[in-house]
């Protein structure tokens, strides 16, 4: 089995001192784990963390958003080329908090993914339904529509993305999709990717939504769950490491 990918999304959390302690703690515990790992930090801290990660390969650095424009008069925006200068490997695009609070729509997400890919950065494309959409039986339609926009804009490059299924109702709420519920949606996404590219096998599909040390192993053991996008539990080294240990256990058991 390929190694699982565990990505921490710090959201708008951290400080110079807290980041130092968190990254140090994660690096100290990562040794020997069979896992691909990354942390997505607020942009102002990328340079601090890049410096901390420069002499190792166990932990990659990511950002939480990127502009859909290449450069120019877009006050407050950060371009993919700028991120690349800070050694960024991944960037989250289409997180539900961006869709909800910043009006991002499917096309914006698709264009952001395109900018990232053109800069050699792997976009982590988030898709997921709200509770209302789930209750109305619309989960599959919603996630397929969200992913279709990214596939359509990015053509054969789609094989270079990471997808994250994040049910909106499970993010930061303590509610988690059951392993079966998550697997069902992952399998829909897998089929959609298979239909889009012959290279779909290389695409990791992460689950995100209140993943923690207790539920990680059963979620990560599902056949189409290739890793996790972790919010709250990525802010404490011991919690984040426990999820990575579960991921490592899945890789070594196979
Ligand atoms: C997230 O922000 O992507 C996320 C999954 O958050 P949490 O793990 O806190 O639900």
Features:
254 residues; binds phosphoenolpyruvate; single chain; TIM Barrel; 8-stranded parallel β-barrel; alpha/beta
Could you characterize what this model shows?
The protein has 254 residues and is of the alpha/beta class. It has one domain: Aldolase class I (TIM Barrel, Alpha-Beta Barrel), CATH 3.20.20.70. Helix content is 43%, strand content 15%. It has ten helices and eight strands. The protein has an eight-stranded parallel beta barrel with strand order 1-2-3-4-5-6-7-8, surrounded by five helices. α3 (80-84) links the parallel β3 and β4. α1 (16-30) packs parallel to α10. The longest helix is centred in the last third of the chain and has 18 residues, at 179-196. It is globular. The model has no long low-confidence stretch (mean pLDDT 96). It binds phosphoenolpyruvate (PEP).
Topology:
Layout (H helix, E strand, L loop, with lengths): L3 E6 L6 H15 L4 E6 L5 H8 L5 E5 L16 H5 L5 E4 L2 H6 L4 H13 L3 E6 L3 H5 L3 H16 L7 E4 L13 H18 L8 E4 L7 H5 L6 E4 L6 H17 L1
Parallel strand pairs: 1-2, 1-8, 2-3, 3-4, 4-5, 5-6, 6-7, 7-8
Bound molecules: phosphoenolpyruvate (PEP).
Question: Gist?
Answer:
The protein contains ten helices and eight strands.
Basic shape: globular
Helical stretch count?
A: 10
Structural class: alpha/beta
Helicity level, as a percent range? 40-55%
CATH architecture: Alpha-Beta Barrel
CATH class: Alpha Beta
- Terminal CA distance reads 6 Å
Give a short account of the largest sheet: 8 strands, parallel, barrel
Low-confidence stretches: none
Q: Indicate the radius of gyration in whole angstroms.
A: 17 Å
Number of structural domains: 1
How do the strands of the widest beta sheet line up side by side? 1-2-3-4-5-6-7-8
Any idea what the CATH superfamily is called? Aldolase class I
Average pLDDT: 96
